[in-house]
Amino acid sequence: MPPFRIAPSILSANLARLGEEVVNVVDAGADIIHFDVMDNHYVPNLTFGPVVCEAIRPLTSAIIDVHLMVKPVDALIPAFAKAGANIITFHPESSEHIDRSLALIREHGCKAGLVFNPATPLHLMDHVMDKLDMVLLMSVNPGFGGQKFIPEALNKLRTARHKIDEYTAKTGKEIWLEIDGGVKVDNIAEIAAAGADTFVAGSAIYGTPDYKATIDAMRAELAKVKR
Ligand SMILES: O=C(CO)[C@H](O)[C@H](O)COP(=O)(O)O
Ligand SMILES: [Fe+2]
């Protein structure tokens, strides 16, 4: 059984009580805090920046996974690294020089990843695998929480899993495969079977009254997965 990681997106948290919401979800069993950064330019929504990351950093030792939905990306990379991010991912469409942006993330001591929108082809990862620690597939169009999972993402996950497994077999390098958008208790097993090992879930966790019960239910579904 591969290690499965659950990454609640604080986009769906009660932002008036953000600190408590971070602590509570980690106490409930989350592995990662997923931090959605939107700029009202690359995506039609506006969220939070490095100062908010810096504010939550002392509250938890959980991994902070910063998903940059901003264009351009490079100027924000050092700022998020300084604010305590552990992983920084960005969309290839938002960088003029993908290899350079990935290198910049790693030079700042963070794990680096590329994010693929539903219609963005996976071949954009082919020549930068050595600089990737994570591949994030969007199963919704980016910009909002609470959207419906796009089923074609399952085929894309299988393709990405194959590419990553081939690369890992050749080099020994581990690359996490994360899925983001519309992940729920009732589809997480199918998504894991298609190849994901890391699961962002915003509304499915923060929209329920008992975060531990929801995360436990997700783990129970994941325990049934055969791959
Ligand atoms: O990147 C995102 C949106 O662009 C969010 O991480 C994602 O939508 C999580 O929300 P939900 O689990 O409610 O779909
Ligand atoms: Fe996200």
TrEMBL record:
It is an enzyme of class 5 (isomerase). Keywords: Carbohydrate metabolism, Isomerase, Metal-binding. The active site is at 36 (proton acceptor), 180 (proton donor). Its EC number is 5.1.3.1. One of its GO terms (molecular function) is D-ribulose-phosphate 3-epimerase activity. Pfam families: Ribul_P_3_epim. HAMAP family: RPE. Catalyzes the reversible epimerization of D-ribulose 5-phosphate to D-xylulose 5-phosphate. This is Ribulose-phosphate 3-epimerase. It comes from Leeia speluncae. The lineage of its organism: Bacteria, Pseudomonadati, Pseudomonadota, Betaproteobacteria, Neisseriales.
